[in-house]
Amino acid sequence: MTKVSVNGSLHWFTWKRNIFSFEVKKESYCLFLLPPLVYKCNDSKDIGLTEYEGKLFIICIDRESGFMKV
């Protein structure tokens, strides 16, 4: 399971495709839902987390077409 570090917090997908965030300094966490458009990605698409310029991004890649949404 891949974690992404952004601004002192670690982020992971949960088994139910939520995002679990752990703030290291405060030792606190939160769980938030994926946006509906991402949550509806079907089996022919892969979703992932990444960091860019200090922000957390969700990517959705269609394996059939190779098209990626950020």
Radius of gyration: 13 Å
Unreliable spans: none
CATH topology: Thrombin, subunit H
Major sheet summary line: 4 strands, antiparallel
H/E order of the elements?
EEEEHEEE
How many discrete structural domains? 1
Strand order of the largest sheet: 1-2-3-4
Number of strands: 7
Per CATH, the class reads Mainly Beta
> Strand-residue fraction?
over 45%
In CATH, the architecture is Beta Barrel
Structure description:
This protein is mostly beta strands and 70 residues long. It has a single domain, classed as Thrombin, subunit H (Beta Barrel), CATH 2.40.10. The longest helix is centred in the middle third of the chain and has 4 residues, at 36-39. The chain has one helix at residues 36-39; strands at residues 4-6, 9-13, 18-23, 28-33, 45-52, 55-62, 68-69.
Offer a few descriptive terms:
single chain, 70 residues, mainly beta
Question: What secondary-structure arrangement, pairings included, does this model have?
Answer:
Layout: E1 4-6, E2 9-13, E3 18-23, E4 28-33, H1 36-39, E5 45-52, E6 55-62, E7 68-69
Antiparallel strand pairs: 1-2, 2-3, 3-4, 5-6, 6-7
How would you concisely characterize the structure shown here?
The protein has 70 residues and is mainly β. Helix content is 6%, strand content 54%.
